[in-house]
Design brief:
heterodimer, A: alpha/beta, nine-stranded mixed β-sheet, 13 strands, B: 9 helices
């Protein structure tokens, strides 16, 4: 079985994002970029399934500009067998990303597609679900535990009410939540090895996907700031302040 | 001319309050109609509750045994079919809505707007990105249906009045897939208020130190009638179950009172609480970022301060 893994590059989660003063975007020049944390978890899960003998091949997929190859090399260094780079200078929205993945699925015929539940830049939380719809296959979102056996995935999902377990026939789409696993660190020899692993580059335009964007972002703003409050000296003063506000 | 379909969330035969929040977001579009769609195996009490929500024109129900559990692959084709003729389809931005809405949007071939905070116009919305560190204004295509999830913390629940909207059973001719099956749901069995809708929340973080120590948080919460929450660190460490996590990837909440105890305040946590009325922080580290946004801060050892707090109550 092949596993396709979405591997997006985003602004590093430790960066405090600044909105440009003219509201035209956020400052990304010189900002550290990293793999979307949920995608690292997706890749780790795929690698573990390969190590267990459930899968033979793990393919990382990135959609982005020419310099995305350096990022895909990290995925290869982590352990993916090969990478597919769908080249486009424009940022793509989730529906387009899902359509791109569907094209790659038609070609690669994976048994499983694992994506992060959301990317920490646009926080959309859509691509996996959209892909499953277009592919007409099961989705198991927000996965906290995955077991593959007898042609199906048994997935424990982190939902608002608690933990839900569902069963999905393969092929299927899984999206990862935080506690699915702890991704491994890349070791130096693996970085050397990754240099000889293949990256297929495909122009987005050549895939014939409907790639126009339905949503237009017209303005970026900084969030409303909470004003700094006061420090109280002890528990009694805290209770008094809360009682005065009518909260206790 | 807007017509909005709000997809109801429910569990164990009870309507979730997130539905009424999505209705109040729908009302902000000033539409001609707001209809609520309920998919369940048995719809009766859920439909009656939904019919009382102020602003609702009609409650549409689809009662099928396949709808006994909210499986996105099963619900989405029904919702996509029912969405015909509507200008907007809204879901609460809960794990239910986040799971199902994009599947519906893709079936309709339209984009989705996630986590709507405000309505600027019928097709213009604001929503957070980068864990709420930037707010964008987004315009959707005026000729397409808008599928959106509603950031529940940004919207009050629409009132439940004496009105009762018409309830209408829909029969949708849709083939449903059998490739996805529900096995079980393990719920936290708690008599405490629901974290997502509680007026008061007491949350613990890594500073609480262990699963056993978390009792101090539960005790304080019970004393003031609050729900219990936690930071990601506390959930990762196994102190509390996942459904208590507050933050970017957990629950986004807006209680009147939020008490953060032993929580340092990573930006991913702060994004989950910034709409709270009053934020109280108790932490032994005076430099903790939580104090930057707290209305009331108290520096010290939580194991000493919480008993003192309970005494003073």
């Amino acid at each position: 079985m092949k596993i396709l893994v979405g591997y997006k590059r985003v602004v590093d989660y430790n960066v405090r994002i600044q909105v440009k003063p003219d509201g035209s975007g956020v400052v990304t020049d010189g900002v550290k970029l990293s793999a979307n944390p949920f995608d690292d978890i997706a890749l780790e899960e795929a690698l573990r399934l390969r190590e267990k003998g459930v899968a033979e091949e793990v393919i990382v997929v990135g959609i982005g500009p020419a310099d995305l190859t350096a990022h895909l090399r990290n995925g290869l260094a982590m352990g993916a067998n090969r990478a597919i780079h769908v080249v486009t200078a424009e940022a793509v929205q989730p529906l387009t990303a899902a359509r791109v993945f569907l094209k790659l699925i038609e070609k690669e015929q994976p048994g499983l597609v694992i994506l992060g539940k959301q990317a920490i830049d646009d926080d959309a939380n859509q691509t996996g679900q959209m892909l499953a719809a277009l592919w007409d296959r099961p989705q198991a979102t927000f996965a906290g535990k995955v077991e593959i056996a007898d042609g199906k995935a048994t997935v424990t999902r982190e939902v608002d009410a608690g933990l839900e377990v569902i069963e999905a026939e393969l092929p299927a789409v899984i999206t990862t939540d935080l506690r699915l696993n702890e991704p491994r660190f890349i070791k130096l020899p693996d970085i050397m090895k990754a240099k000889s692993k293949p990256i297929d580059s495909i122009e987005l335009a050549s895939l014939n996907v409907e790639a126009h964007d339905h949503l237009k972002t017209t303005h970026y703003a900084a969030p409303a700031k909470r004003s700094k409050g006061v420090m109280v000296k002890d528990a009694a003063e805290l209770v008094a302040a809360l009682k005065q506000k009518g909260l206790l | 001319m807007s017509k909005i379909l709000v997809v109801a969330e429910h569990l164990d035969g009870k309507l979730n309050s997130s539905t009424a929040r999505a209705v109040s977001a729908a009302a902000a579009v000033k539409p001609d109609n707001i209809d609520v769609l309920i998919l369940a195996d048995s719809v009766d009490t859920i439909a009656t509750d939904a019919s009382k929500i102020e602003g609702v024109s009609k409650v549409l129900t689809v009662a099928r045994s396949e709808n006994s559990h909210p499986l996105a692959a099963v619900l989405a084709p029904q919702i996509a079919k029912a969405a015909a003729g509507y200008s907007h389809v809204f879901f609460p931005s809960t794990t239910f809505g986040k799971d199902v809405a994009p599947r519906v949007a893709a079936l309709l071939g339209v984009a989705q707007v996630s986590d709507v905070m405000t309505m600027e116009a019928a097709h213009t919305f604001t929503r957070p990105i980068y864990a709420g560190n930037a707010i964008i204004t987004v315009e959707a295509h005026p000729d397409h249906a808008v599928v959106a999830t509603i950031r529940t913390a940004s919207w009050p629940a629409a009132g439940s009045g004496s009105q009762s909207a018409t309830i209408e059973a829909l029969s949708l001719d849709v083939a449903l897939p059998t490739h996805t099956r529900f096995i079980k749901l393990r719920q936290g069995n708690s008599d405490r208020p629901d974290l997502q809708s509680a007026g008061k929340v007491v949350s613990g973080g890594r500073g609480v130190g262990s699963k056993e120590n978390f009792d101090i948080i539960y005790k304080l919460a019970d004393k003031i009638g609050a729900a219990v929450g936690a930071s990601r660190a506390a959930v990762d460490a196994g102190y509390v179950p996942n459904e208590l996590q507050v933050g970017q990837t957990g629950k986004i909440i807006a209680p009147e009172l939020y008490m953060a105890i032993g929580i340092s305040g990573a930006i991913q946590h702060l994004t989950g609480i910034k709409d709270a009325g009053t934020i109280v922080a108790i932490n032994k580290d005076a430099e903790a970022p939580i104090f930057e946004i707290a209305d009331l801060g108290l520096v010290g050892d939580l194991f000493k301060l919480i008993p003192e707090l309970e005494q003073a109550l």
